[in-house]
Amino acid sequence: MIKFYTLVFIAGCFLFSCRSAGKAATSSYDKGNYADAVSYSVKKLQKDPADGETRALLQAAYRNAVDVSESRIRSLSAGADYEAIYNEYRRLQSLYETVRPYPSLVTLVKAADYASYVSTYGQKIAEAHVDKGLAEMDKDDKKAYQAAYREFKTALRYQDDALTRSRMQTAFDAAVIHIVVTSVQAPFGSRYALASYRLHAFEEKMMRDVRYAAASEFIQLHSEDEARARRIVPDQVIELRLGRIDLNRPSDETRSRTVSREVVVKEIVYRADSVVKQYGVVLATIETTKRIYTSGGDLYLTVLDAQGRVLWSDRMSGEYQWVQEYSDFRGDIRALSSTERDAMGKRDRVDMRDEEVEDRVMDEIGSDLRYRLRSYFSRLD
Fold first, then answer.
1. Residue 271 has pLDDT above 70, yes or no
2. How confident is the model at residue 27 (pLDDT cuts 50, 70, 90)?
3. 1 in a domain, yes or no?
């Protein structure tokens, strides 16, 4: 019994799939999507090869798809638009590949193989891009070599050729801009000059920031040691020099408010069971100080060309602030609530260590450096 229901289920799925493919083929044909109509028709005929209606639909859809592409090719040929013609032949070849596994359907639609046309026009496009690349290389400058590299790379998408690959590599090698980033110089007597490990850590971070900004295949960055080891002659040199490092400069903002409370100011005892209390209002002024600690630093950047001429110089700045609050009072302590008493003289946060503040400032400088360098490098690419 289970086998019987399984067979019924499989048969139901088969019939549903056939109907779905048939409806999709008809719908695609009616909308003028002939390539989709061909694909759906082939799927249905795989399940029901004798379906005359679908066979007729496949013939009509295939013929119309071919007619549309061939008409476009005739129009495009007048203007020698090789890429557009190539794309049309690719569409025709895709149609052929849809029916090629089924010889009876190839015969039915009289399908033709367009592979030779795809190859021919791919070669024409490749040759056109190679010619453009060679023309760019004749200009003999970095921008032109970058353009030549892109032309050769495009040519290889249409026709793989060893000579074109060699030309592309030659163009790339000539297009690359080698930039050496010098060691960061720190002001004499500064914390960074005295703590070499912190200067080294800062240099590594700045190198990461510079590399991040140079998101281009044509810009290659090198440290001084790397350039020396690989004997790289730089096209440009980036010099970085730390300026001021000013930590935790305080400034205060004070606000005050007056509080009052009715309390017992005097007790008159007539006898043990007769005490008269006199009430009065006591006052206190609570002063809350908001202390803002401001820290800042500068990094000076100079870009030199191979002859030592200044191409660009700028200053990167970073600032970081952190805040503490504490309260004190003047007047009668009895005017304060228990919560207000507990808050007196206490700071709402612990002090930040100088190293932690420095790191925050350097993060801001690094962010500024990345932004400005990204803009500069974009002009080189």
1. yes
2. very high
3. no
Q: Is residue 183 part of a domain?
A: no
Global pTM value = 0.68
Contact assessment for residue 227 and residue 234, using Cβ atoms and an 8 Å cutoff: yes
pLDDT averaged over every residue in the chain? 88
Give the model's pLDDT for residue 10: 38
The answer to the question of residue 336 being in a domain is yes
CATH number at residue 82: 1.20.190.20
